[in-house]
Design goal:
single chain, mainly alpha, 13 helices, 62% helix
Amino acid sequence: MTPVPGRAARWRAALAVSRRAARLLPAVLVVLAVCGVPELRDAGAARDGGGRDAATWREEMRADCMRRHGFRYVPTVGTRANPIRRDAAEARARDMGEYPALRRFRQKYGFGVFALYAYPREFGNPMAPVEEPLEPNVTIRLALSPTQLHAYQDADDACYAEAVKTVTGKKVTSRYDHLTQADARIKELVAAELDTDPRLTRLGARMAACLRRAGHAVPSATPSALVDRGPAVFLAEERRLGRRMQEPDDRVPETAFYAPPLLPQDARPYLAREIAAALADLECGRDFYAAYEPRRMRMEHRAQAEFGLEAW
């Protein structure tokens, strides 16, 4: 996922929830994971849905396929808004690289890494708010034994892949793979069009020099590398914590992601350091982000349309 402040949080949460549903967390968190993220809806990529939007068509196909596998799945489209996007004007301002909005976000959430744990409801972390009823598909998963849950997940991955292929023509292996491919397409567009842009290169060089003067390591001044630099430090720390705090599963790859089981109070010291780093990054990159963010948003929309996804 591309760690861009504000926007990164929603992509990262969607990717994280999808991979957590792939059995990398204990069963209780696995079954709750699906309740934290809304369906990503179509951006016009459906090929022939009989008048239905792509997300509705895909979910109906997914449910039919699951029935053929002997499981129940309730079609779910756009049932939950992303809480950090509810203030649409503020979200648009961040997407346009406006300094005041970016600063307000970073003052509370940093880069959006440990905020996932410090503010679980706002970031769609896989925790079911106690005052809200569980979604139907979470209830279904809760009723399954561990063996049944593995079979259910395998069937759901296959059914999701079949539905996406029919709706968009894209070949994917799961919802996580679908999002990952779309993210890779965004990175491809950014590398081709933004990393080679002369103005962004000049602004990036100034940002890198400012960060280095402040004592921050800057491996590369390439525009996309600059954007990734700050969040990458804390994403790596998140991964290390997860490996240390979770019991490894021999059935998953060595490189698999383990989310650390951090409670909000445990996450706040990490978030405090992240906020300080994010604000320093923004001060040095104020002009850079103003030029970079609107153009990158257009790249994201292009990729989402291509893969039948709607901005979350």
